[in-house]
Amino acid sequence: MVGRWVAITGVSVILSSLTTQHLVCSRTSTECLHSISHSLRSRFSQHQGRSPSFLLAAPDNFNPDLQPQPSAPAPTETPVEKPQIPSVPPPAPSPKPTVSVPVPKPTPTTNTPPRLTQEADRIAAQRAWKYFERNWNTKTGLVNAVDNLPWTTLWDQGSAILGIHAARQLGLLPAGVFQKRIDTLLQTLETLPLPATGLPNKAYSTHTAQMRQLDNTPDPQGKSGWSALDMARFLVGLHVLREHYPEYSDRIHRITTRWKLANLVKNGWLNGGISSANGKILQVQEGRLGYEQYAAHSLKLWNLEADKALSQPPVKTVSVDGIVLEVDQRNFKNSGATNYLTNDPYLLWGLELGWSDAVKPQVNKLLQLQAQRFQRTGNLTAVNEDSLDRPPYFLYYSVYADDQPWHVTDTRGRAYPQLRFLSTKAAFAWFALVPNDPYAKKLRNFVQNLADQNRGYLSGRYEQRQLGVNRSIDINTNAIVLESLLYQARGQRPLVL
């Protein structure tokens, strides 16, 4: 194998040379590295008093072989095996689960702030908000991507903005405190260091707002590149701010005019930037079916048209357990990036933007398929991308990926079927989007108490009972819990409206 040896904290590994196969990116860089960083930080800081270092094996990918077992503190609240929401009775069993994606009927806009009427929802909101209280940085206004780790991507900060907005709307955050947090954030963004590309770097320190690499090492020149998918989610957050709080509109306009946003789209496709072997930024197509369309619709809020990503994605149909779905033809074998068909982009699409009529059949089948698997196996199923509390620290659990159903894989295409998990954020989002569906109710009941009373919601629970709870805690889980609750409280109005 062509490569080079690199020594990292006493471990030597071979890095393969960059090939064109690796240059087509999917949504792989935004959560996986910060989960690993947290586990490494916990281990090495005890011995060395500094942040650890580790490697990227390919653009937007990491080398999970280098990661030690995490040593995160145990939650102070131990989740029970089958938690129940106090105010929501268990749904009646359904021998033939069916899903009906509703056509949202938004409630008229009024001056009355949205409020949660169920005690279980109020408890959930308070638990999720604990994460923000614990991980907001007073100097920068940025929120840690993972509990107690001062590192972030733009995807994570999009989640942070939407979570803070949800907390303000739900009455968890007083007006004065909200204003201080947003003012601090906008001050940081006004002077945010930018690379020569003119777009925000892939990662930043939440303590200093200085550019970092995806392995949390300094990146003073911003050679990590940019992610169109991450930027799209971040821009959703800024759009919600300027629409719901017009007093910030001018500042947001000045901030975004510093950035070369037009470079997020090229020839009608999402356009990302990755670091190449010679240190230059190489522009590449980014995104796979689901993530690609969520991001493209998000960019339309800023008059950026990725029309081919919306109208010409290369798709095919496959049958999974007798249900026909659309999947991306670009998979790991032919493009170097896996075609994950998982819940996350479709749930964010529904909560934040509102589903288009064209996507509803796909969404309908996604939930039906997971409910059907539960009936067949007895395993509650809510697939997703999520951080983990053990190696490889981040996985995509998909209903279909790389020609395999119910595939669990890391960003390098390696399978981990023993680590299938139920996702907390997926369970909350499904219930918010289809609250009358029995299976969505069952999911929400199950995750209601998967939380640490001082740190926020945990990522979920493993299917193998002996593995128990996935104790990883991050911004995206807790932000999506708050987004889901706000969506409910607003009568199923997408957050951008």
Structure, explained:
The chain is globular, with a radius of gyration of 21 Å. The strands form seven sheets. Strands 6, 7, 8 and 9 form a four-stranded antiparallel beta sheet that branches. Strands 3-4-5 form a three-stranded antiparallel beta sheet. The N and C termini lie far apart (52 Å). It has one domain (3-489): Glycosyltransferase, CATH 1.50.10. It is α+β, with helices and mostly antiparallel strands and 497 residues long. It is built from 14 helices and 19 strands. 35% of the residues lie in helices and 15% in strands.
Please render the helix and strand layout as text.
Layout: E1 3-8, E2 11-16, H1 32-48, H2 119-135, E3 151-153, H3 154-169, H4 175-190, E4 203-205, E5 211-212, E6 225-226, H5 228-244, H6 249-257, E7 265-266, E8 269-275, E9 281-285, H7 291-300, H8 307-311, E10 315-320, E11 323-328, H9 332-335, H10 344-353, H11 360-377, E12 385-387, E13 394-401, E14 404-409, E15 421-423, H12 424-433, H13 438-447, E16 451-452, E17 456-457, E18 460-462, E19 469-470, H14 475-489
Antiparallel strand pairs: 1-2, 3-4, 4-5, 6-8, 7-8, 8-9, 10-11, 12-13, 13-14, 15-18, 16-17, 18-19
Helix pairs in contact: 2-14, 3-5, 3-14, 5-7, 7-10, 10-12, 12-13, 12-14
